[in-house]
Amino acid sequence: MPHYADIVLPLAQPAYTFSVPEGMTLREGQAVSVRFGRQNKFYTGIVWRLHDRRPDFPRIKSIERILYDEPLLSAPQRALWEWIASYYLCSVGEVMRVALPSLMKPSGDTEEEFSEEEFRPRLECYVALAPELHDETVFHETCERLERRAPRQYEALLEIASAGDDSRISTGEIARRLLRADYGALQALERKGYVRSTQHERTVERGGSSFRLPELTPHQRRTLEALREQFAAGKSTALLQGVTGSGKTEIYIHLIAEVLARGGDVLLLVPEIALTAQLIERMERIFGSRVTSYHSKLTNRRRTETYLRLSRSSGGEFVVGVRSSIFLPLKHLQLIVVDEEHDASYKQADPAPRYNARDCAVVMARLTAGRTLLGSATPSLETWSNAASGKYGRAELTERYGAAQLPVVHLSDTLRAARRGERHGHFNKMLLDKIGETLDRGGQVMLFQNRRGFSPYVECTECGWTARCPNCNVTLTYHKSGQKLVCHYCGHTETVPAKCPSCRVTDVVPVGFGTEKIEEEVARIFPEARVARLDRDSVTSERAFNAIIADFAAHRTDILVGTQMITKGFDFEGVSLVGILNADNLLNNPDFRAAERAFQLMMQVAGRAGRRDDGGEVVIQTGDPTHPVIRQVAAGDYEGMVRTQLADRQQFFYPPYARLTSLTLRHRDPTTLRNGIAELAARLRTRFGRRVLGPMTPPVDRIRGEYLVGLLLKVESGASSARARELLSAELKAFSENPAYRAITVVVDVDPQ
Ligand code: ADP
Ligand code: ZN
Ligand code: ZN
Question: Is 320 helix (H, G, I), strand (E, B) or coil?
């Protein structure tokens, strides 16, 4: 056994060398307990490298003990951590912080008692139809009885029956499928003897590969074949570009089933789990208990259980999860599917590591010799370019499934409507007319209002005073419920002043509008319609979220008003009209991706309409109907958008033509900060010349009492990015070692979103 081990600790520091006690057998990737630092605290560390080179510091501490028998990380995972640390300029320890569930990396003055046993899966309750009900006549009689007298029990019974003849289904899964926990109904069914329940450990069925797969259309089959061919020809990553409702998910399902049948593991990455309940449910209908979901709403304990279970698994696992699932210990990983690959939430903005899980998935395919599939109706320009250049494979789905047509898009000119007196509140007459028609026909409506970038704030009509945060250079956002003003950067909260604090003449009034206002107006104009709202404020819990979705899906509500939340992955049959209230504030963002983002968002919102046969309509309200992006959305012209945007990006030297790294410096004292940034900018210019832009003041230049200032580094895509990173990290290191600037915080964001 080697005498020394380099151990990665969950800190922004390099690995640290410990000695291996006599008799201890270690493996790389294993978790151990060590004591470290001035206070000699206990930490969980990962054995990174075993060797015999004695480090040149006097007191070498020895490892306390081994925490788990099985290594927590496979070799490809360790390689991924290293890639992230080097690409995103952070320490491997910082990667460890996001990669492992927090219960697995405790640190403290005493060693916490944590044993592997503790995280054995708990017992779960499973239910199955009682044997008598396997008789079809009995089953139907029972159903008829229940349908009349106890509709909720009837729904639950059907759900249990749909799990298959002899398979059991966990009660948790039923709750998820019905989108509402209804344990009362299940208990009643059991009391009446219609179902049997058993308790046992959550198990993953293995070996079974008889999934009931949807039959593909010829168009879909050709696309699947094309993907298979490109993977077989050695492309490790491919783009599946398909219009909304074309059956991208069906293609995923076929590829996933193949890998599972071979005993391989699959990871399906989704932007945000709460928004993809329907997708998980769909996967569970096909893959049953094989589906493991992983996201931040799970308890710490549950995440730890999942992590440890997967680290011991012998393959055939299917995980659906958010960006951090890229770190799960899937040792037989053969396929990663990244759904909605263009979504910005794949990128972690804060804290380090500021990684993009989509890009990590591409790297992981190489490291595991597996395959990565990127799916989107509107791929990011970076991915599109990689596919166009042949670096990635590519296949398309150009038509919607079945008789479903792409929706018809109408542009409604807000300024003209105002001139003609055809504007009521935030609605143009055209949108109101179409809402009325849709409701008359018994259809459902979705209304999209992008609150971001147009938050409601309060203003004095007399002197123009607005409420600002005392700590941050931003206006406070007005929250109607509770009459509060809140800072979205630091959380500072105050009540709305009765009189203007500046001129003391008038009341202050809310300006700007969000979903709440829209909900109010539409409910007033259509008093008979049932209106609901879906946004961060209305969704206080997962349960509230599920209830809003379930009500809309079951047509218990007619109009759903919402933010981005309503755009993602929902498949509501009854929606025939989608309204976008203000397209302009999507476009007026001071960001080089604003046009691309606006296009993607509007296409996604529009895609919610007419998912079934009778076609759908979309109304976009805009003050600038001739804006190229608005026209491209109206025409569904993705290629057109790509052409104009790529031309811009090339001219102004932005991705995919350049790689960006943004540097943000923070400090309480503006003078120290000004000197610091000047010094750093000068240093970087000696290396990178005109590729360094700035110093520049960010849109919000003061947060929590600290001043902010930024630099932007633009390096040609063709240049060696490894070399650029080397130079950059050497300069940053020299800068942070300068005593004058040591207190300045430097935040590095590679490929900022
Ligand atoms: P996308 O992921 O591209 O938006 P989906 O896979 O969600 O599209 O398909 C849209 C709808 O059409 C879904 O309700 C899906 O069940 C249905 N669908 C697509 N392809 C098929 C198929 N081959 N057989 C049955 N239903 C299909
Ligand atoms: Zn603030
Ligand atoms: Zn005033």
Answer: strand
